[in-house]
């Protein structure tokens, strides 16, 4: 076939899709515990939503959006991130009116036209939360605690939380001015992008990946001195709450994020096993966005995790045995007969109705070949009910891990099924 998936997009199929599934399941479980409810927004939006919220001077808006005219010439964009759409929905449906603090979560694909490499795709997936309706620093800390709890439940204990605060609008402006002063003598020797950023959006220079620019960035002033008293107090409280919740973090005094809407607390979670694209997720507070989009002044904080990168880490830390187990079968029913037995079909159906992950052999194969299939499917048990067993009114149940065999009496169909379920530990 001469048609393949587009560059920067990929198919997710078993056994890897099992990991995706368990990540999403675990995320939903944790989000529920923290009182977040799902919000599903469209994948296509009016382009202005992103140019206004993410910011004109950002890489996402300047270079990475999938933007095209629809059939009536309106500019449409495939969402590059989730926050803007959540805020649009929050405003469009006046959710701020009667709900107090809204805690949302989302899971879904995002699109950015970036140069693909390991951990960087053009269609990638994020899961995230947005808390809208409070400026309290506790919620900054709670968002980070939620994120680290989620990683821990997945078995990721060595992700590092990097934390900073860019402050509110006035502190950000202060910071921007001190960065301008600092970079002014160097800017001519910096990359083209930095020269543009210097004029349009000085903070963005700190994001530059160019090795020569990075050397200059190392000496740039930190955000700390630019924070006004209120912002400094807010940041102090966030750190206190994190310590109270036993969440470890590192202060990264020059951390800024690639989207303009952030104010005050910002954070990023990195993992050493990811290589150059080491950010697993990130987020922060965005107290001005709702107002800038035409709504009332609303405190908000959120984060997004890259599921693609999360799966990459999990594949590295899970042993192959654990991955195989997640893809295992509870019972494989052998077919010792010449044709498919109605008895086996009914048995399979009964087991599945009781949430036992079962399958059966539908082909006429030798006992050895069927056992090979059972092994390939990672069956924990093999059930044998052939002519010999029928004559003796029994079922043989082989435990494939312990290499033992048990005889189960087959007095009635239901008692036999019940016994099988009991033996494989599903009851
Ligand atoms: P951002 O929305 O840029 O703050 O990104 C949040 C997280 O999404 C990052 O930390 C990455 O884990 C993930 N991410 C962002 N862009 C990509 C991409 N192009 N490919 C894969 N994951 C991405």
What does this 3D model show about the protein?
This protein is an alpha+beta fold and 427 residues long. The chain has two domains: 16-168 and 228-317, Bira Bifunctional Protein, Domain 2 (BirA Bifunctional Protein, domain 2, 2-Layer Sandwich); 328-423, Anticodon-binding domain (Rossmann fold, 3-Layer(aba) Sandwich). Helices cover 39% and strands 21% of the residues. The chain is built from 16 helices and 16 strands. The radius of gyration is 28 Å and the shape is elongated. The two termini are 47 Å apart. The model has no long low-confidence stretch (mean pLDDT 93). The structure holds adenosine monophosphate (AMP).
Topology:
Layout: H1 16-33, E1 37-38, E2 44-46, H2 47-54, H3 59-64, E3 66-69, E4 75-78, H4 83-92, E5 102-111, E6 123-132, H5 137-153, E7 160-165, H6 169-183, H7 192-200, H8 211-217, H9 229-244, E8 250-251, E9 263-270, E10 279-285, H10 289-292, E11 300-306, H11 307-317, H12 320-326, E12 329-333, H13 342-353, E13 358-360, H14 367-376, E14 379-384, H15 387-392, E15 394-399, E16 404-409, H16 413-423
Parallel strand pairs: 1-5, 7-8, 12-13, 12-14
Antiparallel strand pairs: 2-4, 3-4, 5-6, 6-11, 7-9, 9-10, 10-11, 14-15, 15-16
Helix pairs in contact: 1-5, 1-11, 5-9
The structure holds adenosine monophosphate.
């Amino acid at each position: 076939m001469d048609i393949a998936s587009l560059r920067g997009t990929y198919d997710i199929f078993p056994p890897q899709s099992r990991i995706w599934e368990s990540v999403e399941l675990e995320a939903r479980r944790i989000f529920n515990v923290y009182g977040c409810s799902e919000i599903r927004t469209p994948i296509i939006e009016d382009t202005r939503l992103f140019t206004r919220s993410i910011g004109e001077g950002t890489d996402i808006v300047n270079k990475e959006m999938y933007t095209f005219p629809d059939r009536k010439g309106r500019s449409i964009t495939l969402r590059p991130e989730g926050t803007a759409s959540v805020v649009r929905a929050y405003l469009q449906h006046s959710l701020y009116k009667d709900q107090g603090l809204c805690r949302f979560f989302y899971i879904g694909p995002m699109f950015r036209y970036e140069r693909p490499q390991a951990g960087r795709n053009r269609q990638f997936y994020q899961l995230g939360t947005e808390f809208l309706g409070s400026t309290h620093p506790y919620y900054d800390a709670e968002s980070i605690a939620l994120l680290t709890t989620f990683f821990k439940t997945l078995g990721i204990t060595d992700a590092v939380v990097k934390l900073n605060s860019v402050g509110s609008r006035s502190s950000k402006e202060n910071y921007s001015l001190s960065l301008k002063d600092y970079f002014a003598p160097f800017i001519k020797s910096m990359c083209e992008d930095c020269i543009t950023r210097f004029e349009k959006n000085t903070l963005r220079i700190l994001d530059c990946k160019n090795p020569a620019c990075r050397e200059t960035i190392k000496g740039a002033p930190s955000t700390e001195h630019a924070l006004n008293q209120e912002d400094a107090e807010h940041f102090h409280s966030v750190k206190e709450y994190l310590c109270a919740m036993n969440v470890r973090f590192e202060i990264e005094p020059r951390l800024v994020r690639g989207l303009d809407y952030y104010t005050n607390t910002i954070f990023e979670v990195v993992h050493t096993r990811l290589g150059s694209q080491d950010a697993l997720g990130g987020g922060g507070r965005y107290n001005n966005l709702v107002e800038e989009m035409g709504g009332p002044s609303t405190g908000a904080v959120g984060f997004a995790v890259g599921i693609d990168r999360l799966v990459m880490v999990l594949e590295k830390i899970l042993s192959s045995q654990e991955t195989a187990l997640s893809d295992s079968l509870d019972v494989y029913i052998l077919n010792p007969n010449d044709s498919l037995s109605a008895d086996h079909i009914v048995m399979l159906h009964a087991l599945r109705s009781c949430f036992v992950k079962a399958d059966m052999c539908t082909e006429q194969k030798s006992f050895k070949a069927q056992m090979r299939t059972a092994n390939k499917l990672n069956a924990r048990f093999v059930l044998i009910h052939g002519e010999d067993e029928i004559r003796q009114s029994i079922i043989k149940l082989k435990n494939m891990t312990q290499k033992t065999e048990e005889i189960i009496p087959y007095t009635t169909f239901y008692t036999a099924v019940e016994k099988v379920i009991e033996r494989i530990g599903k009851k």
